[in-house]
Amino acid sequence: MEYAIDAAGSDIAVRCRGLTKTYGAGDASVMALRGIDLDVRCGELLMVVGPSGCGKTTLISVIAGILNQDSGQCEVLGRDLKHMDQRERTRFRGLSIGFVFQLFNLLPALNAVENVSVPLLINGIARKNAEARAEEVLAAVNLGSRLDALPGKLSGGQQQRVAIARALVHEPKLIVCDEPTSNLDHLTGRNMMELLRDIAQSPDRALIVVTHDPRIFEFADRIARMDDGRIVEVVGGNDKEGLQ
Q1: What does the domain layout of the chain look like in residue ranges?
Q2: Average predicted confidence (pLDDT) for the chain
Q3: CA dist 151 → 109, 111, 112, 210, 211 (Å)
Q4: What is the CATH architecture of 12-99+173-242?
Q5: pLDDT at 100 over 70
Q6: What's the predicted TM-score (pTM) here?
């Protein structure tokens, strides 16, 4: 089963309205999201920037179905995540969302091909076919010579590229990346962003990138700036050049 954008005639991949999220309770509670309103368009690469602790990772985790919001609405590819049970949400994420974690979250006992194959295996693809596809995507991120390497034998930048390959391998409609260039040198980071931008430009796909790296701002169609749990500014075109 493949989920598609089912909002008739909509060019919006993600729609957030009044999104809130609080961690903890009582005096120890911290409000991470304070009424987020945000649209992510199909065919665009949207970057989310802002100081550490402003809610960026929480926002994309709610959008990706990893966290539940406290209130508000979050529609992803025409589906309201809040109204899905856990099994349906897991299935939806497995088919439609690719997530690049800041800490990679690679399985240490699996080599690069096996790690990248995981989303396909979860979706019922035969191992032989899954690994063949994984090899193709690893080659695309310039890791064709490290297919059999365990994560512990890879540099931080190589692990990050394995994580990116894993997020892309099942061709999801929404790709969400948390600091995808943080462990990459400038040239490799640009190469990764060019790959991600090309993928995002499909009319039925969207890409959200959280970043602190101003060197890659040029790849964004729009940039949303967060502060203290709120979206305070969304810029695009030439306006983003002055955003730090």
Answers
A1: 12-99+173-242
A2: 90
A3: 8, 7, 7, 23, 23
A4: 3-Layer(aba) Sandwich (3.40)
A5: yes
A6: 0.88
